[in-house]
Amino acid sequence: MKRLIHIYCGDGKGKTTTAIGLSIRAAGSGMKVLFVQFLKDQSSSELNILSQIANIDLFPCEETFGFIWNLTEEEKESAKDFYSNYLKSALHKVETEHYDMLVLDELMATYQYNFIDRDDFVTFLKNKPESLEVIMTGRNPSPELLDLADYVSDITKVKHPFDEGIPARLGIEL
After folding, report:
1. pLDDT tens digits, residue range 42-93?
2. Contact assessment for residue 58 and residue 102, using Cβ atoms and an 8 Å cutoff
3. Which end of the chain is less congested by CB atoms within 10 angstroms, N or C?
4. What does the alpha-carbon distance between residue 104 and residue 36 come to, in Å, rounded to a whole number?
């Protein structure tokens, strides 16, 4: 079976939740999943349960850099070095351990801000194994990634409690 490329994007809540749901569905059908998160500190509650599901492997992001717009040029260079190597390590793991699904949560911002090698990543997507389903999430996907995707879902915010000053809540957003 040929596996496809998905993008879940937009300013609405639910991009990561969608990727998690697909991961669980895939694991439940016997597929082997590698779940990779960029720009997050690994404290989201969903990781607690995902780590307990057979066939889902988490690839922890050992370092975070804060909000991109607050970074100095030096910090941006450090982030680029880190995320480039992080992605290369994840892709190497996919290739050597034969995963059926690769989730790249919050990849779009790392791509948009050149924190990964764009050309290498596009080449990977163009030449990915036919047996690998790729799920990408985040805001503002680039036109070249949209062109490569088979599925694109734009999750639009209509209303969100954060806009009313309600902070993220454990078990819902955290």
Report:
1. 777 888 899 999 999 999 887 777 777 787 888 888 889 999 999 999 999 9
2. no
3. N
4. 5
Cα separation, 42 vs 59, in Å, equals 10
pTM for this structure? 0.91
The token pair that represents 11 in the structure block: 């300013």
Positions in the chain whose pLDDT score sits under 70: none
Q: What angle do CA 153, 154, 157 make, to 5 degrees?
A: 140
Between the alpha carbon of residue 19 and those of residues 58, 75, 101, 114, 167, the distances in Å are 13, 29, 11, 23, 23
Q: What is the pLDDT of residue 110?
A: 92
118-127 and 73-97 helices, crossing angle to 10°: 20
According to CATH, the topology of domain 5-164 is Rossmann fold (3.40.50)
For the chain, counts of helices (H) and of strands (E):
6, 6
Tokens representing 43 are 């404290």
Q: Would you list the domain boundaries of the chain?
A: 5-164
Distances (CA, A) of 111 to 4, 87, 157, 162: 20, 11, 22, 26
